[in-house]
Amino acid sequence: MKFRTIKGTKDILPDEIAGWQHVESVVRRVMHDFNYREIRTPAFEQTGLFARSIGELTDIVSKEMYTFLDRSEESLTLRPEGTAAALRAYIQNNLGEQSPLTKVYYIGPMFRQERPQAGRLRQFHQFGAEALGASSPLLDVEMMALPLEIYKQLGIDHYSLKINSVGCEKCRPAYKKLLQTELRKVFSQLSPDSQVRVGQNPLRVLDSKNEKDRELTNNMPLMYKHLCEECTLHFASVRSIFDALTISYEVDGRLVRGLDYYTKTAFEITSTALGSQDALAGGGRYDLLVEELGGKSTPGVGFAAGIERLLMVLSQLGKSDQKQAPPVIYFVGLDEPAHIWTFLKATELRQKGICAEVDYLGRSVKSQMREANRQQAHYVIVVGEQELKTKAAKLKNMLSGEEISISLDDIKIPT
Ligand code: HAM
Question: pTM value?
């Protein structure tokens, strides 16, 4: 074999595709019910767009982006996520002028050069949504209720929703200083990764997966307990709306997320059915991001969810047995004229929306029958010289074995 897929990328084979299409159709239906409209942005953008929005110091920007110079020496990056691109499109196309609130969703591949493992790929797929133009906590809740409804409709009910508030430009700086003071007291015992974060991004230390780091930071002050009045009220509203919707959640003061653009609400949906990469979806509010990217000051909130991880959960739950519908009719041809006739007939049936298949390989009757069986065709019609002369043939039900006489001029599928 000369060429293979790149490490961390996967073919999605025909046997798997029905599962993907099922997920995509539920996503599209629920997005529509929540009144989100689809947006499709390019797979690559200017590198600066991601560096500016996700944050230079994040793992994504500092070590995971697929960045390259094109032939005109411009630095481009394969999108590592969908939010920055959706906001770029919102600003560039003045979507905010058409309506005060813009609700969009996307489904597509994202690219991050992470260490591949179960549930972590270098090309993976997300569905996600962004709502731009309103700061209402109702929208924060909508952004969490939306993926949860998708999971519910797919039959997943074991997940946990963690929420936090990461404050805003008014309250975060003072909290950051407070946290840094505490972190410096245990600095030498922190993991090297966390030590790097103390100076620039101390909140991420709380989010560390390292056991020792977690122990050391166990009793450290949490952002949601040091919010300004506006953020406190916002967080309280989000929680009370959840209570009214009877959606259960947990406040996790350590939840920070790996992207720097969040203000106020941040959340993650995890599943115990996944291993260490347990995040099914994540998102939050980003009230400063549109302005940061050159647009008018516009509040926003969004989420994104991994499709591969969702499919892993569905498969563990035994809910991934979707199959593409098999052919309704498989024509078995006995000689060359019959092959041509069956091909023309199949074309006619296909135009009527009936899935029909013929033999293209000049196989024996036995092996054509075997193929019809393998493809789980509902019916088989054997056509040879005799059938073409009399215009009469047998329609065989492959499940029951029953045969009925039919006219080849008017093939009707029994209902
Ligand atoms: P994120 O947490 O980086 O957020 O990614 C969202 C989801 O994408 C994760 O929870 C996970 O299911 C999936 N995912 C991420 N990386 C990988 C990977 N390497 N392999 C497989 N699945 C992966 C965002 O991307 C933000 N844009 C979410 C957002 C939208 N915030 C506001 N709006």
Answer: 0.95
Q: Are residues 165 and 251 in the same domain?
A: yes
Tell me the pLDDT band of 272, cut-offs 50, 70 and 90: confident
Ligand 1 close to Cβ of residue 120 (< 6 A): yes
**pLDDT surpassing 90 at residue 209:** no
**What's the average model confidence in pLDDT over 260-271?**
96
pLDDT value at position 277?
Answer: 77
- Whether residue 137 has its Cβ less than 6 Å from ligand 1: no
54 lines ligand 1 (CB under 6 A): no
Query: Does 113 lie in the same domain as 31?
Result: yes
Residue 259 Cα: closest atom of ligand 1: 3
How far, in Å, from the CA of 140 to the mean position of ligand 1?
17
Answer whether 308 contacts ligand 1 (Cβ < 6 A): yes
* Residue at which a domain ends, from 316, 348, 380: 316
339 and 296, same domain (yes or no) = no
Ligand 1 atom having least distance to the Cα of 121: 20
Domain of residue 232 covers: 14-171+227-316
Encoded tokens for 152 = 């519910």
d(CA 204, CA 38): 32
State residue 278's pLDDT score: 87
Cα 81 to ligand 1 centroid, rounded to whole Å: 7
Cβ of residue 83 lying under 6 Å from some atom of ligand 1: yes
- Nearest CA to 246 out of 363, 148, 387, 313 is that of 148
Share of the chain above pLDDT 90, in %: 94
Cβ 66 under 6 angstroms from ligand 1: no
* The domain boundary residue, chosen from 261, 291, 316: 316
How many structural domains comprise the chain? 2
Cα four-point dihedral sign 48, 54, 55, 61 = negative
- Measured N-to-C along each axis, helices 229-245 and 137-153 cross at an angle, to the nearest 10 degrees, of 30
**Distance (Å) from CA 298 to ligand 1 centroid:** 23
Residues 247 and 346 in one domain: no
User: What SS3 class is residue 340?
Assistant: helix
Q: What is the CATH number of the domain that holds 265?
A: 3.30.930.10
Question: What pLDDT does residue 394 have?
Answer: 97
List CB contacts of 413: < 8 A, sequence separation 6 or more.
328, 329, 354, 378, 379
Is the pLDDT reported for residue 8 higher than 90? yes
pLDDT (average), residues 128-156: 97
Q: Which residues contact 68 (CB under 8 A, 6 or more apart)?
A: 75, 76, 77
